[in-house]
Amino acid sequence: MATKCGKCGPGYPTPLEAMKGPREEIVYLPCIYRNTGTEAPDYLATVDVDPKSPHYCQVIHRLPMPNLKDELHHSGWNTCSSCFGDSTKSRNKLMLPCIMSSRIYVVDVGSEPRAPKLHKVIEAEDIHAKCGLGYLHTSHCLASGEVMISSLGDPKGNGKGGFVLLDGETFEVKGTWERPGGAAPMGYDFWYQPRHNVMISTEWAPPNVFGDGFNPADVEAGLYGSHIHVWDWQRHEIVQTLPLQDGLIPLEVRFLHNPDAAQGFVGCALSSTIQRFYKNQGGTWSVEKVIQVPPKKVKGWLLPEMPGLITDILLSLDDRFLYFSNWLHGDLRQYDISDPQRPRLTGQLFLGGSIVKGGPVQVLEDQELKSQPEPLVVKGKRVPGGPQMIQLSLDGKRLYVTTSLYSAWDKQFYPDLIREGSVMLQIDVDTIKGGLKLNPNFLVDFGKEPLGPALAHELRYPGGDCSSDIWL
User: Fold this and answer.
1) In whole angstroms, what is the distance from residue 252 CA to residue 86 CA?
2) Residue 66 is part of a domain; what is its CATH number?
3) Is residue 462 part of a domain?
4) In which order are the strands placed within the sheet that holds 190-193?
5) Which pLDDT belongs to residue 124?
6) pLDDT tens digit string along 11-35?
7) pLDDT band at 85 (very low <50, low <70, confident <90, very high)
8) Is there a domain that residue 10 lies in?
């Protein structure tokens, strides 16, 4: 196998080689207590996902952070397949940026993957002073060995889409990746593709806008993101800002994994669209809508129309399937993207959501369903919330799902999620014809955690995965 070649660094030489990697045995998930009423620090949970293990579906380790109310969210590696050719590099540290406290925790998973230890705390003051940034989101490793983390705002919570650069050995804050004064007006996620000298970044909203919950008036006032930014990867500056048609709140962005590819997809949460971005012959970039999830007319909800709210998207490592979650409607979808301009729906599963039968919401008009879906019960537990963060196994055959979005929005849209905690589910994937099927024997119930119900978020495997690895 590629990782045994002796002279190589972390990860795999190509995405297709990664698909031959070992089956996942453990996963790491940040678990959040902010806004739940439990006065305890967020923690990193290690979950056993090996069906042969006596601890299958159990949290086998919890690493609490030293502070309260951080709101851990997304995590990333100190190094990944972008450093495959460098034998001095090792994927042994997990970066945990905090959305609300602006800290970064560096966790050592190398010495004992099943019992990670806290390696370093990077305090917000250091990031504020050296970068003028805060409210941190996505972490990616770079081929230089450095680590780059996107910001949602400035230290005061105004919108500012910049990037914190960390030394890959000492994890000292080096400054910003972008040129001084060159941050985007808003930030969220990013993905780079060096063969095309490009990086794409997305926008949520200023932390002062989304921080305490969602207010529809803020959308009317134009305070939420509706653009993606195209950066020159070598010059570290924005070269194009693309407005999105029907593209409110562009969140997760994914290039195709093939490093030669000059296209990818972004999921727009509020307008519930998937947009394809691509490079033109002249070297500029364009974007087009390729999937629209229609809203449902409802009674008994915040607004008369309920969007799907696409919150996470993934591409399989062979670039054949696109997956996304509709957090409010409650369904998870699989599309064949063999023709990226015309995605074809091949799988759909309802895993909870806001429109289940017997709930407070009545659907008056639905362009897709004939009746409201049944509530989801797994191993006797009625699942609160809807499908949110997703992670695919390397071979593409298993999809893991968690149900928490962001604690303040969980509290607003799914109060039962706050009371009962989130869950982790597993879906079996048909990689030949397409199709999704719930594994009825898999449930990790974070409602039963020792300190009280917790909100589990993004999933990471020790060996990397299809949303953290970038190939050069």
Assistant:
1) 28
2) 2.130.10.10
3) no
4) 190-193, 198-201, 227-232, 237-243
5) 98
6) 999 999 999 999 999 999 999 999 9
7) confident
8) no
Number of domains in the chain: 1
Structural domain contains residue 470 = no
Residue 462 corresponds to which amino acid? P
- Distance, in Å, from the CA atom of 183 to the CA atom of 163, rounded to the nearest integer, reads 8
Rounded to an integer, the average pLDDT of 311-331 is: 98
Per-residue pLDDT reduced to its tens digit, 203-228: 999 999 999 999 999 999 999 999 99
Q: How far is CA 227 from CA 10, 187, 209, 315, in A?
A: 34, 10, 17, 21
The fraction of the chain above a pLDDT of 70, given in percent, is 99
Query: What range defines the domain where residue 117 resides?
Result: 15-456
Nearest to 26 by CA among 119, 113, 107, 117: 113
Average pLDDT over residues 284-294: 98
The predicted structure's pLDDT at residue 7 = 62
> Cα dist. 106→109, 273, 436 in Å?
10, 34, 35
Is 133:112 a contact under the CB 8 Å cutoff? no
Contact 434, 336 (CB under 8 A): yes
- The tokens of 54 are what? 């006596």
SS (H, E, C) 206-265: CHHHHCCCCCHHHHHCCCCCCEEEEEECCCCEEEEEEECCCCCCEEEEEECCCCCCCEEE
Average of pLDDT values for 313-337? 98
Q: Which two tokens stand for residue 289?
A: 């809508």
- Please provide residue 218's backbone torsions phi and psi, each rounded to the nearest 5 degrees: -70, -30
Length of the chain: 472
Q: Is 44 exposed, middle or buried (0-12, 13-18, 19+ CB in 10 A)?
A: buried
Average of pLDDT values for 50-57?
Answer: 98
| 6 within some domain | no
